[in-house]
Design goal:
Chain lengths: 113, 112
């Protein structure tokens, strides 16, 4: 257990529904990342927060995706009008400033049917 | 474009032998290279990193080698154990950037 908690661990949803995932990072970490991982591939960067500020978003993050970190602590990732192509593992990671070591949670596996 | 990739998707190793996992990268501007281990059903776990101005770094049972001339990174695991069975990813990072760029991964299977 790295100390990064993600909920839920699994989510099955029907196409067109909205889903929201939560990430609780390690408390003293000011950096928080969201990644997406499909089967057999490495994680792909989605977005990054430093404290409550969202500093970068990947082109992978379409308009249907939104992430927040309102108080610089936990973060949520919402996907609206889910599509089958959204099925993947969504990983959250946190880290300290100027440190390459990122601690990943166990992920939320999303299946869109 | 920029990419980080691994030479072989799978590696089978006899327990007790040394493992070598390879990775080729294309982004010369990377400041750090990092190895992650991912066990089934879990998120990636940091193993070791190496700064771009270094050639070698050792950890507990692991050694990372960086050859900038040929843009090659390797992870050596000494005395491989069953618990080392996992998918291993190399990743790169720039200090001016925040994100890690991962390769596709090598699945290591340790034979008893």
């Amino acid at each position: 257990d790295t100390g990064v908690s993600q909920n839920p661990r699994h989510k099955i949803t029907k196409r067109g529904q909205n889903v929201t995932f939560r990430c609780d990072p390690i408390s003293e970490h000011n950096r928080l990342y969201w990644y997406r991982q499909t089967l057999g591939q490495g994680p792909e960067f989605l977005t990054y927060f430093q404290n409550e500020a969202q500093l970068e978003k990947s082109r992978l993050l379409s308009d249907r995706f939104s992430a927040e970190r309102p108080k610089g602590s936990f973060s949520t990732l919402e996907i609206q009008r889910t599509e089958q192509g959204d099925s993947a593992m969504y990983l959250c990671a946190s880290g300290r400033q100027a440190n390459t070591e990122a601690f990943f949670g166990q992920g939320t596996r999303l299946t869109v049917v | 474009g920029e990419s980080v990739g691994l030479h072989l998707p799978t590696l089978s190793v006899q327990e007790g032998d040394n493992s070598i996992i390879n990775c080729a990268y294309s982004n010369s501007a990377s400041d750090y290279f990092i190895w992650y281990k991912q066990e089934s059903g879990k998120g990636p776990q940091f193993i070791i990193d190496i700064r771009s101005n270094m050639d070698k770094r050792q950890g507990q049972r692991v050694t990372v080698l960086l050859n900038k001339t040929v843009k090659h990174l390797s992870l050596q695991i000494a005395a491989t154990q069953p618990g080392d069975s996992a998918v291993y990813f190399c990743a790169e990072n720039k200090e001016s950037d925040y994100k890690l760029s991962f390769g596709a991964g090598t699945t290591v299977t340790v034979r008893a």
